[in-house]
Design a protein that fits this description.
This protein has 13 helices and two strands; from the N terminus they run H-H-H-E-E-H-H-H-H-H-H-H-H-H-H. The protein is mostly helical. A hairpin with a 2-residue loop joins strand 1 and strand 2. Helix 1 crosses helix 13, helix 7 packs antiparallel against helix 10 and helix 10 packs antiparallel against helix 13. The chain has a single domain, classed as MetI-like fold. Helix content is about 70%, strand content about 0%. The protein is globular and about 75 Å long. The chain has a two-stranded antiparallel ribbon with strand order 1-2. The mean pLDDT is about 85. Its main location: membrane. It is found in: Cell membrane. It is a multi-pass membrane protein.
């Protein structure tokens, strides 16, 4: 059996590894090569320019603008999403207090789980179209109709450079929070109810119970959630492309790297430069994930 173990493992892994190399590793390697050329999408033999595309990135104001927007997204979107999801998950699982000797969620918690998760079944483009009507600059938009009903002037939500990016963040949070409510609910369900009941007997209120029991025992789940949300913040291409004014506007107030990669590749035919942006985005994402996992590392609490 021992002599036949390794051929079996190699044979079992050969197909998936070959598929992964072909469809994941090879395109990455090709993108790295294209990033060091002046390829315009139709050149049979593009010129090799070395690191010139990356030097151009460092001098590109649009690139730095998009990078700043990703910085705002990285700070705001994960933080707001995790805070809301933790609050809702806590209320749905143990927020109802002790009933019949057991900890329960608020009344109607099963129905609320379905409502919170509903945005997850919608495609990003559909969400963008829906919020395009919500943010409509006249009274046909839901928000401006509400403002008009209370006597306030309509706002140019997506046309105002000062608030457009925050409107995008609000949509990202709205779409993401339901998934993390379910994720954190699953994590809370794995916490023995005896711990909550013991904390209640000791006189702990909901605030103390959350910070002293729930949060420490959910730390690993929070770590994963922050990484996933950070990666989502580095994406945001589809939502910005469909929802924003002039695809990243107004005046590039909502642009992100994905939008600029698409624009440089398919509008300006600068595939080499677009690939350089893609390579930069790749390393930014990997660096963020590695730093987050490193900084948030802590000892596992055994139950």
């Amino acid at each position: 059996m021992r002599h036949g173990k390794y051929p079996f493992i190699v044979g079992f892994l050969a197909a998936p590894v070959a598929i992964y190399v072909t469809f994941v590793i090879a395109p990455y390697a090709q993108a790295f090569y294209v990033a060091m050329t002046s390829w315009r999408g139709v050149d049979a033999n593009p010129s090799f320019v070395g690191l010139q595309n990356f030097e151009r990135l460092l001098q590109d104001d649009v690139f730095w603008t998009a990078l700043r927007h990703h910085g705002v997204l990285l700070l705001a979107m994960p933080l707001i999403t995790i805070v809301l999801a933790l609050f809702f998950a806590f209320m749905l699982n143990v927020g109802g207090g002790g009933r019949g000797g057991a900890m329960t969620g608020v009344w109607g918690s099963k129905f609320y789980r379905v409502v919170f998760f509903f945005p997850q079944i919608l495609a990003v483009v559909i969400v963008a179209v829906i919020f395009g009507r919500v943010y409509a600059p006249d009274e046909s938009g839901l928000l401006n109709a509400t403002l008009g009903a209370v006597g306030l002037e309509p706002l140019l939500f997506m046309a105002d450079p000062g608030i457009a990016l925050w409107c995008v963040i609000a949509v990202l949070v709205w779409q993401a929070v339901g998934f993390y409510v379910v994720l954190f609910s699953a994590g809370m369900a794995s916490i023995p109810k005896d711990i909550y009941e013991a904390a209640t007997i000791d006189g702990a209120n909901r605030v103390n119970m959350f910070f002293r029991v729930t949060l420490p025992l959910l730390w690993d789940t929070l770590q994963v959630a922050w990484v996933y949300l950070g990666i989502a913040a580095f994406d945001a291409f589809a939502l910005v492309w469909v929802l924003s004014v002039d695809r990243g506007g107004p005046d590039r107030a909502t642009t992100v790297l994905g939008v600029e990669i698409y624009r440089n590749a398919f509008e300006y035919s600068q595939f080499g430069y677009a690939s350089a942006m893609g390579v930069a985005l790749f390393f930014l994402t990997i660096t963020f994930a590695a730093l987050t996992l490193r900084v948030s590392r802590r000892e596992t609490i055994e139950l």
